[in-house]
Design goal:
By secondary structure, the chain is an alpha/beta fold. It has a single domain (2-307), classed as Purple Acid Phosphatase, chain A, domain 2 (4-Layer Sandwich). It has helices spanning 7-14, 77-87, 108-122, 136-139, 145-151, 180-190, 221-228; strands spanning 18-25, 56-59, 94-98, 130-133, 156-160, 163-167, 198-202, 233-238, 245-249, 252-256, 288-295, 300-307. The strands form 2 sheets. A 6-stranded mixed β-sheet has the order 1-12-11-2-3-4, with helices on one face. A 6-stranded mixed β-sheet has the order 5-6-7-8-10-9, with no helix packed on it. Helix 6 (180-190) links the parallel strand 6 (163-167) and strand 7 (198-202). The longest helix is centred in the middle third of the chain and has 15 residues, at 108-122. 43% of the residues are buried. The model is unreliable at 1-49 (pLDDT under 50).
Length: 311
C-alpha cells in the first residue's frame, strides 16, 4: 500500500531525496461527490477501500525556455525529472502542473514554440493523465490565448476517487485577479459538491496575501477563499513563489510547491526579489516537486517534497 512506505523505501522507489513529510486532514466522512465530466471513480468516502487510494504529483514553475545565470542547466532539469518519474516503479494516477510551464517572452511565436516544446517533453511521461494550468509567464501577456491553443481551458474541475479537484486561473488577467465571471463559475461548481466533501484547489498564485509587494497574492483571492470557506475540507496547492510555504486561512490549508528551475528567497527576506544564486556544487538545491497521497479510507493525506536528483 502506498501510504505504508517508509522514508527509505520511498527514496529507493523514486531515486530522489525527500524533504518535509507531514500528514493532515483532507476530507470529511460519509459523503459522495457528484458525477461530472472528468470523473474517475467518485466514491462514498465513508465506505472507501484500498482501491480508492492513490497518489498524484505536483510539478510547478518549470519555466521552459529560461536562459540565465540562476540555472545554467535549465534545458536539462525538466527532462531529468521526466526520466526520474518514468523510471519509478510506482506511477501516479495523474500529474498536475501548476503554472509557469514556460518562461515569459514578448514574442508570440516564441511563446508558442516554448509551449509546444514543453508539451512534447512532458508527453513522454508514462503517466498519460496530465492536468495543466497556466502561470503568468504563459498567459498574462495575451490573456491565455496561446496557452489555450495547446492545453485548453484555463480553469476547470474534475473528480477522482472521491475527491473534487478545482483548477483556478489567477494569471490570465494581467492584474492578478480571478474575476467575477470565474468566481460565479466557482460558486456554480461548488454548489454541486457536498459541504463535507474533500476538495483540492489548484492555483498558480497564492489566494491569500503572502507578500503582495512581490506579486505573491491574488487581488480578489479573499472572495475565492470566502466561497471555499463554506466547505469543510479544502486544501489548496499552488506554485509561483518557487519554495515551500505552508499557511492556513480558517480551516483551509495552502501549500506552495518548489520550482523546477530556480528557487526564490523567503518573502521579504531581501530588499529585491531575485532568484537565489546558482550553486555549482549543489545544482539541485532548492528545486523539487511534490507527491500527494490521499487516503480515502481514513481521510488523511501524506505530502512528500521531492528533490530534483543531483545527477
Amino acid at each position: 500500500m502506498l501510504q505504508s512506505l517508509d522514508r527509505r523505501q520511498f527514496m529507493r522507489v523514486f531515486g530522489v531525496g525527500t524533504g518535509v513529510i507531514f500528514a493532515s486532514r483532507l476530507a470529511g466522512a460519509n459523503v459522495r461527490l457528484p458525477s461530472q465530466g472528468d470523473t474517475q471513480g467518485s466514491a462514498a468516502a465513508g465506505s472507501a477501500t484500498a482501491k480508492d487510494e492513490f497518489f498524484f504529483l505536483q510539478l510547478s514553475d518549470t519555466h521552459w525556455g529560461y536562459q540565465g545565470a540562476a540555472n545554467p542547466e535549465a534545458d536539462k532539469t525538466l527532462k531529468k525529472v521526466v526520466k526520474g518519474i518514468n523510471d519509478s516503479e510506482l506511477q501516479p494516477d495523474f500529474i498536475v502542473f501548476t503554472g509557469d510551464l514556460t518562461h515569459t517572452t514578448d514574442d508570440p511565436d516564441l511563446r508558442r514554440k516554448r509551449l509546444g516544446e514543453f508539451k512534447e517533453i512532458v508527453g513522454g511521461l508514462k503517466t498519460k493523465t496530465l492536468k495543466f494550468m497556466p502561470g503568468e509567464h504563459d498567459a498574462s501577456l495575451d490573456k491565455g490565448k496561446a496557452y489555450q491553443e495547446f492545453f485548453g481551458a484555463t480553469h476547470y474541475s474534475f473528480d477522482h476517487k472521491g475527491i473534487h479537484f478545482i483548477a483556478l486561473d489567477n494569471v490570465s488577467d494581467p492584474g492578478a485577479s480571478v474575476g467575477d465571471e470565474q468566481i460565479d463559475w466557482l460558486k456554480s461548481d461548488l454548489a454541486k459538491v457536498e459541504r463535507e466533501a474533500p476538495i483540492v484547489v489548484l492555483t498558480h498564485r497564492p489566494l491569500f496575501d503572502l507578500y503582495p509587494q512581490w506579486d505573491w497574492s491574488t487581488r480578489d483571492g479573499a472572495k475565492v477563499v470566502d466561497e471555499l470557506q463554506k466547505h469543510e475540507n479544502v486544501t489548496v496547492f499552488y506554485g509561483h513563489i518557487h519554495q515551500e510555504n505552508h499557511h492556513t486561512t480558517g480551516r483551509i490549508e495552502h501549500h506552495s510547491a518548489k520550482s523546477l528551475i530556480f528557487p526564490l528567497p523567503a518573502p521579504g527576506s531581501v530588499p529585491k526579489k531575485a532568484p537565489v544564486a546558482w550553486d555549482a556544487e549543489h545544482p539541485s538545491r532548492g528545486l523539487g516537486y511534490r507527491r500527494v497521497a490521499p487516503r480515502a479510507a481514513d481521510l488523511t493525506k501524506r505530502v512528500a517534497e521531492l528533490d530534483v536528483p543531483a545527477s
